[in-house]
Amino acid sequence: MKSVINSFFRKPPLPAVTPFLPDGLRVYCIGDIHGRYDLLCQLHDKITHDAETFSGQKVIIYLGDFIDRGLHSKEVLDCLSKQTNDLFDYIYLRGNHEQTLLDFLQEDSVGRSWLTYGGQATLASYGVSLAKIPTKREDFIALQTQLRKNLPEAHYKFLVATRLSHQLGNYFFVHAGINPQLPLHKQNNEDMLWIRETFTETTKTFEKIIVHGHTVTEHAELLANRIGIDTGAYASSVLTCLVLESTTQALIQTNAS
After folding, report:
1. In a domain, 247, yes or no
2. Which among 68, 130, 134, 215 has the fewest CB atoms less than 10 Å away?
3. Whether the predicted model's global pTM rises above the 0.90 cut
């Protein structure tokens, strides 16, 4: 009898969420850029061309990880922080790489881990060179001091102002993903910036369709519960943009070199 009672009170699975945006709105959502300024320029041109035929509100959402790994992080941040195209509204989300840079500016001990996943490329783009492999705390303090000096104030303010998530229609936009065990309004920063397999391997239906980057796949994943668009641009040369309008979903991508 106990098992029957427990089964009776178990919540039924939620039905699949219908893809939906309000009428008169088109969203362009760009995956992880990672210092590939060349690809960002190509994709911006393609988006601008695609948007010419749409007269409604056009929004570009960037899913974070603008920096590291690729060689031109400074140019990427310079471009994003100065955008003034009246054709689009812009939403910038924070990735774990932006968070790590901000953490390093406050705490030198973060530097060791940052360098293991691409921070050296960002330092180099800001003219901070490593004369040797840093091993001591004073080495990281020196790098931290030089980065603080070389990082434009406009870039710092841009990074601080980035959001952790954004919602439109039946879509929830976030860098890494969400904790499947928590409702959207109770998600924590750590998961939204860093979560991976716990999120990507579940087939659970969420309150909204989750659009994310962070986890690299060869091809964009357009699934019923989530859409992943990190196609490893820094290595593959394929930077992906998800185009959403009403109930439709499409992709715009740069061409692999």
Report:
1. yes
2. 130
3. yes
